[in-house]
């Protein structure tokens, strides 16, 4: 158990991948502890489209106030961290003013991390819906790399010329914020008494020396891999039965209406890259054209499989963000002991494995209890799960040491990454293939000379 002082400005945060029951727990805790919920899911901020965005319905909300849910138009780009954090901070203060408990919930983990941790300057390159790149980033890789060399030579030097996605992301940070990615990472390493930049968001924490803005209790909703994959596959079938294709059609109608008014809709950004829209585009077009028969059914089956695959990949990215980014941020903030893993693998055991332990820990956190239980007392696998899977290199810029394996066409940025690569099966197979080709060429040369 950990000795603590009861919080004066508490916040509850619920994280986890899609399909783990985050919204349900948030509503239960809000009901029990007089809370209000702040949505921290980028896609659920869009108006309408309850199926594609997987929003909780009005009935499911049970009268609990929800904020930042369905609040932006379909034509708008996804909110950046710089937009989300100040809005959420203002809402937290409004909730406090009503004497209620702010509860953060959502799968856009870089929103929650940036809101809770003062020095958390994160990009959305490892999680969330497939990201909506600026059209300027669709140019050939060599053009993008040259532009990055001009605006941020430090980051350009870090990446291999073939690492298009990483080059895009570094350039995107500059395009979106006007600040170089290398400067952002350097700012994260400034000593605590360094002068803050004018763009820094003012902290609302009662303790300005704390790395956290708020006194936070966090619940990680965890579902074992096989159960989650099956659950997500089934959810896609449920979405189709509930009218997913009709929502896709409504999005096309909205786009057509906007274009008739002379307003161009950028379908490479925002809600237009949400999972389900593009996967069902071909099937929707076939239905709209009045086509029927086995070929159309095949299109539907393929759309379902693509949506299932994309959803599972999305969940995997969400979990990786927690494992590599979020947990490291909590360790740096000395707040790891305030994270509790709840096992939502068995829906039939929800009360005993999720709701009851969450209510018990929350009551201890909010009340006069001077200690919180160990996470392993709530879920025995917690110690393993709450150990970061690797280092967050954005906070270890001093250890960047670029080495490029031209044979495998990859770049390692630390000694550990390089040693891991050269000892990998992939590297050995590539070298074996090169040696085999060289041997065959030598033998052919000898045969020709004979």
From TrEMBL:
Q: Name one GO cellular component term.
A: mitochondrion
Composition-biased stretches, type Low complexity, lie in 196-205
Q: Which domain of life is it from?
A: Eukaryota
E.C. code: 2.5.1.75
Record-linked InterPro entries: Dimethylallyltransferase, IPP_transferase_euk, IPT, P-loop_NTPase
Q: What is one process in the GO biological process aspect for this record? A: tRNA modification
Q: What class of enzyme is it?
A: transferase
Task: Please state the span of the N-terminal signal peptide per the UniProt entry.
Answer: none
Functional summary from the UniProt entry: Catalyzes the transfer of a dimethylallyl group onto the adenine at position 37.
* PANTHER family with a match to the protein in the record: TRNA DIMETHYLALLYLTRANSFERASE (PTHR11088)
What HAMAP family is this protein classified in? IPP_trans
Q: Name the protein family.
A: Belongs to the IPP transferase family.
What name has this protein been given in UniProt? tRNA dimethylallyltransferase
């Amino acid at each position: 158990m950990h000795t603590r002082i009861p919080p004066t400005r508490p916040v509850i945060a619920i994280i986890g991948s899609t399909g783990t029951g985050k919204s349900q727990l948030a509503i239960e805790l809000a009901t029990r502890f007089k809370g209000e919920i702040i949505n921290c899911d980028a896609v659920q901020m869009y108006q309408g489209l309850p199926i594609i965005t997987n929003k909780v319905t009005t009935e499911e909300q049970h009268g609990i106030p929800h904020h930042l849910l369905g609040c932006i138009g379909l034509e708008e780009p996804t909110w950046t961290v710089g937009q989300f954090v100040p809005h959420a901070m203002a809402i937290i203060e409004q909730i406090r003013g009503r004497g209620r408990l702010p509860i953060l919930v959502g799968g856009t983990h870089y929103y929650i991390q940036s809101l809770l941790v003062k020095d958390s300057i994160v990009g959305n390159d490892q999680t969330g819906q497939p990201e909506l790149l600026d059209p300027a980033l669709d140019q050939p890789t060599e053009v993008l790399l040259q532009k990055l060399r001009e605006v941020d030579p430090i980051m350009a030097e870090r990446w291999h010329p073939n690492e298009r996605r990483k080059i895009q992301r570094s350039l995107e940070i500059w395009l979106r914020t006007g600040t170089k990615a290398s400067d952002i990472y350097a700012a994260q390493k400034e000593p605590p008494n360094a002068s803050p930049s004018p763009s820094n968001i003012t902290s609302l924490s009662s303790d300005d020396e704390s790395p956290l803005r708020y006194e936070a209790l966090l619940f990680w909703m965890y579902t074992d891999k096989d159960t989650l994959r099956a659950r997500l596959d089934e959810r896609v079938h449920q979405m189709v039965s509930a009218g997913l294709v009709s929502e896709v059609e409504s999005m096309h109608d909205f786009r057509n209406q906007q274009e008739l008014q002379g307003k161009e809709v950028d379908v490479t950004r925002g809600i237009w890259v949400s999972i389900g829209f593009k996967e069902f585009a071909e099937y929707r077009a076939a239905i709209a054209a009045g086509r029927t028969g086995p070929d159309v059914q095949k299109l539907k089956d393929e759309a379902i499989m693509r949506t299932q695959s994309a959803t599972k990949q999305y969940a995997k990215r969400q979990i990786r963000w927690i494992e590599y980014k979020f947990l490291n941020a909590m360790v740096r903030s000395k707040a790891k002991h305030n994270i509790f893993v709840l096992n939502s693998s068995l829906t039939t055991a929800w009360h005993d494995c999720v709701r009851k332990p969450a209510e018990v820990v929350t009551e201890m956190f909010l009340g006069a209890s001077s200690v919180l239980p160990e996470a392993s007392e709530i879920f025995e696998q917690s110690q393993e799960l709450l150990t970061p899977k690797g280092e967050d290199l954005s906070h270890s810029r001093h250890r960047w040491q670029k080495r490029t394996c031209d044979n495998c066409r990859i770049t390692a940025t630390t000694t550990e990454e390089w040693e891991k690569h050269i000892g990998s099966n992939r590297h050995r197979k590539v070298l074996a293939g090169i040696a085999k080709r060289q041997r065959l060429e030598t033998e052919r040369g000898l045969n020709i000379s004979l």
